[in-house]
């Protein structure tokens, strides 16, 4: 099973195994049926974020944001555009630091928006401040390893 990838469902938190050859075929979560890597930005809680950051074999980019943050709201459509561009080889998600202040503490977030890229169970890189979609996409492609 060397060519099967572990992906935590960003909706329900279940761990799924997806053959690498089926990554582009719209794989769904075996537990809840949500699409695993359809290029949509999904909201996370801290538990799902930590599980996914630990277990995922695909790069995971998380936007730490809050509703009161103007630059965060301005970046949201850019982030969504980058998510589409990077699917199915990388996943983008977001966490509301107002609802989940424990996430800011856990990841030592000093200002938002802040992007953290995870792969192979560890933090790979960070990007601070609001960025256009092209910058977000280039950041992930340069720092993470996407499947061919
Ligand atoms: Zn699920």
TrEMBL record:
SUPFAM superfamilies xrefs: Thioredoxin-like
Matching InterPro entries: Thio2_N, Thioredoxin, Thioredoxin-like_sf, Thioredoxin_CS, Thioredoxin_domain
Boundaries of every Thioredoxin domain copy: 23-145
MF-aspect GO terms: metal ion binding; protein-disulfide reductase activity
Domain of life assignment: Bacteria
GO annotation, biological process: cell redox homeostasis
Keywords, comma-separated and alphabetical: Disulfide bond, Electron transport, Metal-binding, Oxidoreductase, Redox-active center, Transport
Keyword presence, Metal-binding: yes
One term under GO cellular component: cytosol
Keyword Signal: no
Family assignment from sequence similarity: Belongs to the thioredoxin family.
PANTHER family linked to this entry: GEO12009P1
Protein's name in the database: Thioredoxin
Lineage: Bacteria, Pseudomonadati, Pseudomonadota, Alphaproteobacteria, Rhodobacterales
